[in-house]
């Protein structure tokens, strides 16, 4: 396989990073960022991971779990998120989730055509777990062999009114007229504090890229998400086996206590399970007892169960894999031609 780009990532020298230039939008230049962890014993298999809202890729344990099994791990920071956010941009804003298809397409080209991987597992968390099935349904790449969705955002949580026809019409109208109007909401910061090691959690990450208080929500962006939800609810046809992981229970906490570490305090897991079968014809849904919203950031014993579930599912429905290190529990690790010639990080 071709050698990886030589630029080291903020996660350390084992992680390589490259910037993908995209067509500018009304705010100016746009980029996405692809982070790669090479498998020590490459097998021609890879993973492409897409993060969630107000998030970016920092999940070194998750990446190494796949790399230990022969999968070169790629993660993309989408436009206006994390490594890809620029000073002139409105964080995370898009008017249509299909805008993300451009960077996913270019990442897929690098993984399959440039780097020669023949089998790719798509991985998505939360909002990324909505965007990725929409992309796979439309693109249907031949190299896609499996999809793993970690607490995907499949519906609007909260009051039933928010899912009503009247709310849908209101979001559509306001999203058209004033797309950058911020939606007032109360953010407790409990979820962020439950994760970050300086605030009661286990993990270290950049609070500038993943703020404790999340990010503003704009009407035009929410309209894009609700349109994605509607497409999912109408039924997708993702052409590969799909695993949907979630916590066993939701609990919308307003203070940092044990519930925040053992429940999904962001999304309604009943909605996740309700809509899981809408992804495609072959879907397995597993609720992991004691899991957090980001299942692979749960407490050690819980994420060990999650990794075991992924392994069992992969062995059953994709193909047997063998760890090159002998570790099957996901133990914590702290830390050619190109179709677009505008890359500045390769």
From TrEMBL:
Region Disordered, residue ranges: 321-346
GO MF annotations, alphabetized: hydrolase activity
Family annotation (Gene3D superfamilies): alpha/beta hydrolase
Pfam families found in the cross-reference section: Hydrolase_4
UniProt KW keywords: Hydrolase
Boundaries of every Serine aminopeptidase S33 domain copy: 45-185
Protein name according to UniProt: Alpha/beta hydrolase
């Amino acid at each position: 396989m071709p050698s990886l780009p030589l630029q080291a990532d903020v996660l350390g020298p084992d992680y390589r990073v490259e910037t993908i230039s995209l067509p500018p939008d009304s705010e100016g230049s746009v980029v996405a960022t692809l982070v790669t962890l090479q498998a020590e014993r490459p097998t021609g298999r890879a993973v492409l991971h897409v993060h969630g809202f107000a998030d970016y890729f920092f999940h070194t344990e998750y990446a190494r779990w796949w790399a230990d099994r022969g999968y070169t791990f790629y993660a993309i920071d989408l436009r206006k998120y994390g490594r890809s956010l620029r000073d002139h941009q409105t964080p995370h804003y898009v008017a249509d989730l299909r805008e993300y298809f451009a960077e996913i397409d270019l990442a897929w080209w690098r993984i399959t055509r440039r780097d020669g991987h023949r089998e790719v597992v798509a991985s998505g968390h939360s909002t990324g777990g909505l965007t990725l099935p929409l992309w796979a349904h439309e693109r249907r790449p031949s190299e896609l062999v499996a999809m793993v969705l970690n607490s995907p955002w499949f519906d609007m949580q909260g009051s039933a009114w928010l899912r009503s026809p009247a709310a849908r019409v209101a979001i559509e109208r306001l999203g058209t007229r004033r797309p950058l109007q911020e939606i007032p909401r109360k953010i407790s910061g409990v979820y962020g504090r439950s994760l970050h090691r300086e605030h009661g959690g286990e993990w270290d990450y950049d609070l500038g890229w993943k703020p404790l208080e999340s990010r503003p929500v704009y009407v035009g962006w929410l309209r894009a998400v609700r349109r994605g939800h509607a497409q999912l609810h109408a039924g997708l046809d993702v052409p590969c086996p799909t695993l949907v992981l979630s916590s066993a229970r939701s609990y919308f906490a307003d203070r940092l206590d044990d519930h925040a570490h053992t429940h999904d305090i962001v999304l309604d897991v009943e909605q996740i399970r309700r809509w899981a079968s809408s992804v495609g014809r072959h879907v397995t849904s597993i609720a992991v007892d004691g899991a957090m919203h980001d299942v692979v950031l749960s407490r050690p014993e819980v994420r060990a169960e999650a990794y075991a579930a992924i392994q069992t599912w992969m062995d059953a429905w994709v193909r047997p894999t063998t760890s090159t290190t002998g570790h099957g529990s996901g133990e914590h690790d702290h830390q050619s031609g190109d179709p677009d010639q505008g890359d500045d990080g390769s």
